[in-house]
Specification:
297 residues; mainly alpha; 0% strand; cell membrane; 11 helices
């Protein structure tokens, strides 16, 4: 199964698609940060400052520099408080949905499934997924912010004192992991034009994607810290290049996990009597955009 997954990964040119997702991810990063900082701005500038401090503590050097510079730049441009700012947030959400649109196309390629959903149906799906991802990203940011004094203050209000700080310092990591799992699960379920068993928090492919992403990110961080020569090669652009490579690796891990799920679906279809070489091998969600001759009878 893993051998077939790797072979299909190459046949579907998913490394190139991961590069395209990286491009759209970068385009979505700054609008996404605008939404995030604008929403955090409701809680005050000190909240955003705590987010930056947490990023500086947790993120690897090059990634930290890129993200914190972007957040500070967006923060300096202003937050919520005017009609223009609200319009800017909506425009930012639309820009950020470019990544989801690219992922929809990639997921259909993985399942060898033509897009059959009409535009009026795809666009709400695309924007809806984007909004859900932004909400989960904001939740992740709030979890990062809710440390130290904030957790201690909440513990005092609840009458459990410093116990809250101890419990939360441990519990926040599983919660963050759950949010990451939720993001991957949402993309795997809602993006492709395929009917499945319904929303599942964890699939074999999403679990594989998460494991590969964690291992690859850790390995890449070790390589950059100890063996990489990005500073010598790229100079002042080294941080940006490292960040782009990490995004590309992350997208490769996600697409590889999706391909694994697709191969499992193919295996189930073949066992159920589906011809081995006939595509698509899963039932489409919608065929309204297909030519009449390609629609199932």
């Amino acid at each position: 199964m893993l051998r077939r997954t790797v072979a299909e990964f190459q046949d579907d040119e998913l490394a190139d698609r991961a590069a395209a997702l990286t491009y759209y991810g970068v385009l979505a990063l700054f609008p996404g940060l605008l939404v995030l900082v604008s929403l955090l701005g409701v809680a005050g500038e000190s909240t955003t400052r705590r987010v930056l401090e947490s990023i500086k503590k947790m993120a690897p050097g090059p990634t930290r520099d890129v993200v914190t510079s972007a957040v500070e730049g967006v923060q300096g441009a202003g937050g919520v408080g005017s009609l223009l700012a609200v319009v800017g947030v909506l425009a930012a959400l639309w820009s950020a949905s470019g990544y989801v649109g690219a992922f929809i196309r990639s997921s259909n390629a993985v399942y060898d499934m033509p897009e059959g959903r009409p535009v009026w149906k795809v666009l709400p799906v695309r924007v809806g997924i984007t909004v859900a991802l932004v909400v989960m990203a904001v939740g992740s940011a709030l979890i990062v912010v809710f440390t130290g004094d904030l957790a201690r203050r909440a513990g005092s209000l609840l009458g459990i004192g410093d116990t809250a700080l101890t419990v939360w310092s441990i519990a926040k990591w599983p919660v963050l992991l759950l949010l990451v799992i939720g993001m991957i699960a949402l993309l795997f379920w809602a993006a492709p034009n395929t009917k499945g068993p319904g929303f599942r928090w964890v699939t074999p492919g999403s679990f594989l994607a998460l494991v590969i992403w964690l291992l690859a990110s850790a390995g890449f961080a070790v390589y950059v810290a100890n063996f990489g020569s990005y500073n010598k090669t790229y100079g002042a652009l080294a941080g940006v290049v490292v960040f782009l490579v990490w995004l590309w690796i992350s997208n490769i891990a996600i697409l590889l996990g999706l391909e694994f799920d697709a191969e499992l679906a193919r295996e189930r279809a073949v066992v159920g009597g589906h011809p081995v070489d006939e595509e698509p091998y899963v039932e489409p969600r919608d065929t309204r955009s297909w030519p009449d001759e390609e629609k199932p009878g």
